[in-house]
Structure formats: C-alpha cells, structure tokens
Amino acid sequence: MPIPAIAHRATPTGLRRLFLGLICGAMLSASSSSAQTTENGFAFDVRISLSAKAAAKLAALSEGIIVSASYSGTPTPSAAKHADEIGQIDLGREEIEMQGHAGTVHVTGAKVNQKHLPWIEGPVLLNINVYSARHSGQDNILACDFFDGELRNAARQPVSLHCSLIAEHIDTRHKQ
C-alpha cells in the first residue's frame, strides 16, 4: 500500500495544519452528533397510507393532511400540581402538514418542552392523530388509525397509520 503524499512532506507547518484540520473535524463531528442525539431523542417517522377513496377525495379537493404529535408523561409526586386535566404533564405538541397523498412524515420533537422532563417519572408518552388540513372546508374528512403509547416504541420504526374517508365507515385502529 503506498504511503500518502502528506507523509513524505511532514514539515512542522504541514503537521500543524493537519493537526488543526483533524481537531476542527472532530469538533464538527461531535457537535453534529450531539445535535442529532438531541433531535433523535424525541423524533420519529409516521407512514401514512390512504384508501383509494380518501386519496381521490384529497386530490380532488387539493386537501392536505395534518400529523399531530402530543408528548406527555406521568407526573412525579412533587410535580402533580403541574398535571393537566387528565393527570399528565404536557410536554408539547408538534403538527406537520403534508400534501394530501400517502407518504412518510418526519416529526423532529423540536417542540418538546425539555424543562418539564424532570416533572415526569417513567417513559415519555406519545399520542399521534392524523386528520385533514381543512383547507377546502371546516370539517375533517378523514378517519385515521392513531398511536397512543410510549415514544420509544414509535421511535424504533416508522409508525404506520391508515386513513380512509369518514363516509367509508372503516374502523380505525389503536397502535401502541
């Protein structure tokens, strides 16, 4: 294996430049890795599928789809006073609008209020709902599966949720 050209011309200036380059590269790698870890702590993907009738109606109306993710947790005894009306600590909500066809949405978790994490015990809980964006009318037209469970389960692999038109009367499923 040939020796790289840089090894043949190892001068003090060249070595300093190489060393500085390696240090800068390591710092950039560490900072992007840190940002990725933070984002991935609350991030997940949702894969939306549509019935043929729902796909046709959304296309005809040029209607969008909203994926709504609500994060929460069980309060510690000392944080019970901060619980919401259903007894949970609200950690935030993120809504993503996508075009009105099947596809995958990435939810970043950027809206999670991390200052409230010490108020919860146990895992971060996640509720995912999907509905029409209501650009073409004031009523939701979709009946979609939903996710209600632990965030870590949603983060393992994309959460698959199927949507049909409410008028189709197809049962929705609870995923966890």
Automatic annotation (TrEMBL):
Keyword Signal: yes
Signal sequence, renumbered to the chain: 1-35
Keywords attached to this entry: Signal
Name the UniProt record assigns to this protein: YceI-like domain-containing protein
Organism of provenance: Edaphobacter dinghuensis
Biological classification of the source: Bacteria, Pseudomonadati, Acidobacteriota, Terriglobia, Terriglobales
